[in-house]
Specification:
The chain has a single domain, classed as Rossmann fold. It starts with a strand and ends with a helix. With 233 residues, the chain is an alpha/beta fold. It has eight helices and eleven strands. The strands form two sheets. The chain has a nine-stranded mixed beta sheet, sandwiched between helices. Strands 5-8 form a two-stranded antiparallel ribbon.
């Protein structure tokens, strides 16, 4: 069944109302690996145990990140937060990189990855970024919405094999200042960061869109998951 991939989950209320894990599970299975879901248990012993079980980690989408984790006071426009999930996922990300495990951060996950290593985010791009595009799409989840530009020589650029791509989009928070050791590898046309990676590890990538919802009909989205799974062997 291939490598074992841990996928972060959410509290029940968040899970029902936001981002069901079905898409992640199916994308991982379709790419030749075995998914397991990681529940929210904010305990360091649990973090260590999870990281002994999995061969790779997906930081999944969901609700907002509590601004206390990146040194800010909450502003008007910040949504519902679940601090227990935030603290667990930050610890998982740090442990995964310490163990040199492949990591793929998706939507909220790219933000958690950036925060875990010293970066921060916009709490609400619509009030903080002048001229921003609509990033909360009014289209089905498996439809593309806006275009992004990729750095061709980046790992993400080489995996996807294109310089420009249309992606789906379901967020109002985004990376502001990138964490040390990471670089920006994709942006939307309004300047919002859509992809980051680090060259200090084999595969540590974050994307702001939701490729897991596109893999059924989009080979480019599937390529990202397949490259991630390959790195987990």
């Amino acid at each position: 069944m291939g490598p074992v991939i841990g996928v972060t989950t959410a509290h029940l209320e968040e899970e029902i109302n936001t981002y069901p894990r079905h898409y992640y599970v199916q994308a991982i299975y379709k790419s030749g690996a075995t998914p397991i879901l990681i529940p929210v248990i904010p305990d360091q012993d649990a973090v260590d145990h999870y990281m002994q079980i999995v061969d790779g980690l997906i930081l999944s989408g969901g609700t907002d990140v509590d601004p206390k984790y990146f040194g800010q006071e909450p502003i008007r426009g910040t949504g519902r937060v679940y601090p227990e999930r935030d603290s667990l996922e930050i610890a998982l990300a740090r442990k995964a990189l310490k163990l040199k495990l492949p990591v793929l951060g998706i939507c909220r996950g790219i933000q958690v990855l950036n925060i875990a290593f010293g970066g921060d985010i916009y709490q609400d791009i619509y009030s903080q970024v002048p001229g921003v595009l609509e990033h909360s799409q009014k289209a089905p989840r498996n439809s593309s919405w806006h275009s992004i530009e990729l750095l061709p020589e980046s790992k993400v650029g080489r995996i996807l094999g294109v310089k420009e791509l249309r992606v789906n989009s379901f967020h109002h928070q985004a990376i502001r200042n990138i964490a040390p050791g990471f670089r920006v590898v994709a942006r939307s046309r309004d300047g919002i960061i859509e992809g980051i990676e680090t060259e200090n590890h084999q595969f540590v990538i974050g994307v702001q869109w939701h490729p897991e919802a596109l893999v059924e009909d989009d080979d480019i989205a599937l390529n990202l998951f397949q490259a991630f799974i390959k790195a987990c062997y």
